UniProtKB/TrEMBL annotation:
Lineage: superkingdom: Eukaryota
UniProt cross-references to Pfam families, sorted A to Z: Syja_N (PF02383)
Gene Ontology CC terms, in alphabetical order: endoplasmic reticulum
InterPro entries named in the record: SAC_dom
Presence of the UniProt keyword Transmembrane in the record: yes
Domain annotation SAC: ranges: 122-450
Catalytic activity: a 1,2-diacyl-sn-glycero-3-phospho-(1D-myo-inositol-3-phosphate) + H2O = a 1,2-diacyl-sn-glycero-3-phospho-(1D-myo-inositol) + phosphate; a 1,2-diacyl-sn-glycero-3-phospho-(1D-myo-inositol 4-phosphate) + H2O = a 1,2-diacyl-sn-glycero-3-phospho-(1D-myo-inositol) + phosphate
Organism per entry: Culex quinquefasciatus (Southern house mosquito)
GO BP, sorted A to Z: phosphatidylinositol dephosphorylation
The keyword Magnesium is assigned to this record: no
Protein name as annotated: Phosphatidylinositol-3-phosphatase SAC1
């Protein structure tokens, strides 16, 4: 076992004063003091306690402070995903959160409730599908980045050399960021990994999709839009397609991310709140920082913007185009494509026109190609950065088509396909390809919006269907509910987990707890009146008297009017009924972005 590989099979002992983590087959033990929080790796002699239940754990995710004190987070269950570059990749399937302080007697009753809410937040984030990790392979980097690393850097710990943009437990691992503990620090990514053995034309190969979600400006669909002052954008995701044919490895990378301007879409109970630019912000500087980061990490950029050129989205399209034109960066090209207008009446075949417009640059960007003998044949020196309004549904459709084109070219280069040959639309691999990209869409969407993606019927089948439209309708309604009534809690959970908000000593006792917010009178009154008025209206209509008379009709009219007036009032004051984040309220978040 190399000095940087992470322990994967451990015994976990808990005593009143200490945690003991013992790697099986090793002569050492990690001891964590529950009072001082000091962690040390010691040669195993007789430190292990006797008569204490032994728990099995397969990773340490770190520690996080809540009201009752610090809590240790460990991996208890994992699912094998597959092999990448001869290394095993796993998916998080179970975890445990153990308090350093074994009792809550030092807390008030109110603090106990608040501590429970914080615990629920951590659990919700870790229950998000899906987290991935490896004990021997750096899942945060692309093949090209890994290949470019110097040999001495490759000997550092996985957490130390990981791309911090994609390490979701980076904040929790700071408690253990010391060289002697590095073999216990297990970095995880949030995203999607699919590892598949495939066959085309009688040639066996491995086909992999690895999607990594950024921790910067992380959040939920309507509470996290646009860019911040450092150039980080919401819903930023890197997706890598890897092909391994008899040891030859080819990698193709794409990115997606929110429109890199200061903009918002304030939830207010309307089905589609209009997006708007935030006034008084320097879009040019922030966008320039974002593009500089993109150029450093990936090379030249083609910005594929899929939002509408009319209606509510038009203000963002014009501002984005103007900003890129003003920056006039020769390594950045802006490609605007009105997805909905071009593909109206379910004419998704017209997307091939867009792919044709991008083909020249895709050929120029190339792919990372490492021959089986270790010789580097080519590198990818540019990426397509695709966005729509959410960077979910339309974005995934286009990314899958670019990936398909890259895949076919790579398979031709590797001798799997003959020159000019396409993958058979009726082949098993074609269905595998479409299914995996649709699964990728669903997970990326669930992580950001709370529901599966829209338009996945096209990704799965190559055409839009009526059943797909019905499924999109169901997902849209679910998004509406979650984005308005659930996402405040989910945004708070992400902010707490990533360390954007940290719990203070004495919170809920000597310091106010941000979880305690008094709602206005409308919040409690309007829904009760609406519910009562609707019940009365429903009862008067469904259970009428034997004959309708003027009095009864006036009764129906009155309660119907009450339903209408109260409903209109709720919509008018919609922002007061939305589940807003409490840990970092929008005013605070706006100041952080400025």
């Amino acid at each position: 076992m190399a000095s940087w590989e992470i322990h994967d099979d451990m015994n976990f002992y808990i005593t009143a004063n200490k945690f003991f983590i013992e790697p099986n087959g090793k002569s050492e033990v990690l001891i964590i003091d529950r009072v001082s929080r000091e962690a040390s790796v010691q040669v195993k002699t007789n430190q292990l306690p006797h008569g204490v239940p032994i728990r099995k754990v397969c990773g340490v995710l770190g520690a996080i402070k809540l009201i009752s004190g610090f809590h240790l987070v460990v991996v208890t269950h994992r699912i094998f995903v597959g092999i990448v570059n001869s290394q095993a990749i796993w998916r998080l399937a179970g975890f445990d959160i153990i308090p350093y302080v074994p009792s809550l007697t030092h807390l008030s009753e109110t603090q106990k409730v608040q501590n429970g809410v914080y615990l629920a937040m951590i659990r919700q984030v870790l229950d998000t599908p899906y987290y991935y990790f490896s004990y021997t392979y750096d899942v945060t980097h692309t093949l090209q980045r890994l290949h470019s690393m110097p040999p001495d850097f490759m000997q550092t710990g996985l957490y130390e050399r990981a791309d911090s943009r994609f390490v979701w437990n980076g904040f929790m691992l700071k408690q253990f960021h010391r060289p002697e503990v590095r073999q216990y620090c297990l970095p995880i990514i949030l995203g999607f990994v699919s590892i598949n053995d495939a066959m085309v034309n009688g040639h066996a190969f491995q086909w992999i999709i690895m999607t990594r979600r950024s921790v910067h400006r992380a959040g939920t669909r309507l509470f996290c839009r646009g860019i911040d002052q450092t150039g980080n954008v919401a819903n930023y995701v890197e997706t890598e397609q890897i092909i391994d044919v008899r040891g030859d490895k080819v990698s193709f990378v794409q990115t997606r991310g929110s429109i890199p301007l200061f903009w918002r879409q304030t939830p207010n109970l309307k089905y589609k709140p209009p997006p708007e630019l935030v006034p008084g912000r320097d879009h040019l500087i922030a966008c320039s920082k974002h593009l500089d980061s993109q150029l450093i990490h990936y090379g030249r950029q083609v910005l594929v913007n899929l939002i509408d050129h009319r209606g509510a989205e038009d203000v963002l399209e014009k501002a984005f185009a103007t900003t890129i034109s003003t920056l006039a960066n020769p390594n950045v090209r802006y490609e605007s494509y009105d997805f909905h207008a071009e593909c109206r009446k379910m004419r998704y075949d017209k997307l091939h026109n867009l792919i044709a417009r991008l083909a020249h640059e895709q050929d120029e960007f190339g792919v990372f190609h490492l021959r089986r003998d270790g010789v580097l044949l080519s590198s990818q020196d540019g990426v397509f950065r695709t966005n729509c309004i959410d960077c979910l549904d339309r974005t995934n459709v286009v990314q899958s088509m670019l990936a398909k084109r890259s895949l076919e070219q790579a398979l031709m280069r590797l001798g799997v396909l003959t020159s000019g040959q396409k993958i058979d639309p009726s082949s098993a691999f074609e269905w595998l390809f479409k299914g995996v990209w649709a699964d990728n869409a669903d997970l990326v969407s669930t992580q950001y919006s709370g529901t599966g993606a829209l338009k996945t019927d096209f990704t799965r089948t190559g055409k839009r269907t009526k059943m797909g439209l019905l499924q999109d309708g169901a997902n849209s309604l679910t998004r509406y509910y979650k984005n308005n009534f659930n996402d405040g809690f989910r945004q708070d959970a992400i902010d707490l987990f990533l360390g954007s908000y940290t719990v203070q000593d004495g919170e809920g006792l000597t310091l106010p707890c941000p979880l305690v917010i008094q709602k206005g009178w409308k919040y409690g009154t309007f829904p009760v009146v609406l519910l009562f008025a609707f019940a009365m209206f429903f009862a008067s209509v469904v259970y009428p008297q034997e004959k309708y008379n003027t009095e009864h009709l006036l009764f129906i009219l009155f309660w119907g009017s009450m339903v209408g007036v109260t409903g209109a009032g709720i919509l008018k004051y919609g922002v007061e009924f939305v589940d807003w984040p409490k840990l970092l309220p929008q005013a605070t978040r706006s100041k952080m972005d400025a």
